[in-house]
Amino acid sequence: MTSDGPASRLPGARSALQRALITGASGFVGTALAQRLKAEGTEVFGLARSVPSTRPEIMNADVRSLSDVSAVFRQVLPTHAFHLAASRSRGGSLQELPAAMAVNTLGTANVVAAAAAVGCRRVIVLGTAEEYGNIAAPFGEADRECPMSPYGISKLAATRAALTAAPLSETEVTVLRATVAYGAGQLPDMFMSALLHALKEGQPFPMTQGEQTRDFIYIDDLVEALVRAATASEAAGLIVNIGSGESVTVRHVARVAERVIGAFGLLQIGAVDLRQTEATSYSVDLSQARRVLGWGAVRSLEQGIADTVKAMAN
After folding, report:
1. How many folded domains does the chain comprise?
2. pLDDT tens, 79-109?
3. What is the pLDDT of residue 15?
């Protein structure tokens, strides 16, 4: 953990981020990022397949369609784009690969091409630590990746396509490979969110033995990294790992949540089998994030869970 955070933001970041376009703007990370950018005076626009009636700044478009994406970029003319839209399927069936490639890989290629066509300064692509697969931890940006799922394969292909294509234009690309994000507002289809919802509602929570390790990053820390990646000059053309720096077992996370919420006896440890495509050892090297972005996560796991639970109650 470091003391870097909102109080030590990069000089000039506010003025440089004039007009931002966020793909996947109606999602968990997109919503939090939009709120942060708006608070700092950035004009914010969004692109999403599902547009909430309460978010008039979001335009309906499918990232799989270059014409859809290009039309939005021409209308907005953003100085920066944050590409967060992605297929979230975590299944291990090869039958899921074409759909994952269409959204994650082709979608990313469409965003980079559309951004370049209108002179967007930089595209920040939100990747995932699942691109590394089950290689030896800690994962470093220079490691040879070996993804284990259609999701990881498609995201790695997206990363390579975006970074390889970027030199063909004046638009810069930065890829942030984030660990597992969590926080209030996340749908209960992710482990942390499902866990907290179940415990708060007094419902049993079936889970694996929980011996696999993970790095959970609080949403505000991830948003801070995204903002910094948009303006840090040295970040152009790089993959940068983003995580909390705490690699803990899933069982430990469940026990912390149990203690924070005060709901005991609901964890059904060992009731669910581990997915074959799930990495068992999972941590990331954050030295490049500290060097290039001047960034480090602020919230500990316990504090992040407590903040999430408090926000869920409001």
Report:
1. 1
2. 999 999 999 776 778 899 999 999 999 999 9
3. 52
**Are the beta carbons of 141 and 92 closer than 8 angstroms?**
no
Phi–psi pair at 44, nearest 5 degrees: -120, 130
* pLDDT of 98: 95
Range of the domain at 110: 6-182+219-245+284-298
Name the token pair of 132: 């590394």
CATH of the domain at 14: 3.40.50.720
Class of residue 105 by CB neighbours under 10 A (exposed 0-12, middle 13-18, buried 19+) = buried
On whether residue 140 sits in a domain, the answer given is yes
Tell which residue, 21, 233, 234, has the closest CA to residue 117. 21
- The alpha carbon dihedral of 7, 173, 277, 139 has a sign of negative
144-166 pLDDT, tens digit each: 999 999 999 999 999 999 999 99
Give residue 281's pLDDT. 83
C-alpha distances (whole Å) from 14 to each of 18, 71, 146 are 8, 26, 37
pLDDT at residue 4, rounded to an integer: 41
Global confidence as pTM: 0.93
What distance lies between CA 24 and its chain's CA centroid? 11
Tell me the percentage of the chain whose pLDDT exceeds 70.
95
Q: What does R_g of the chain's alpha carbons equal in angstroms?
A: 19
Cβ contact 123:63 at 8 Å: no
Q: Is 81 part of a structural domain of the chain?
A: yes
Q: Is the distance from CB of 226 to CB of 272 less than 8 angstroms?
A: no
Task: State the pLDDT at residue 10.
Answer: 45
Q: Is 297 helix (H, G, I), strand (E, B) or coil?
A: coil
Determine which of 1-10, 46-55, 278-287 has the lowest per-residue pLDDT on average.
Answer: 1-10
With a CB cutoff of 8 Å and minimum separation 6, the contacts of 263 are: 199, 200, 202
Say if residue 6 is preceded by a cis peptide, omega within 30 of 0.
no
Contact 55/79 with Cβ under 8 angstroms? no
Q: What is the largest CA-CA distance in the chain?
A: 57
> Does the residue 86 lie in any domain?
yes
Within a domain: 314:
no
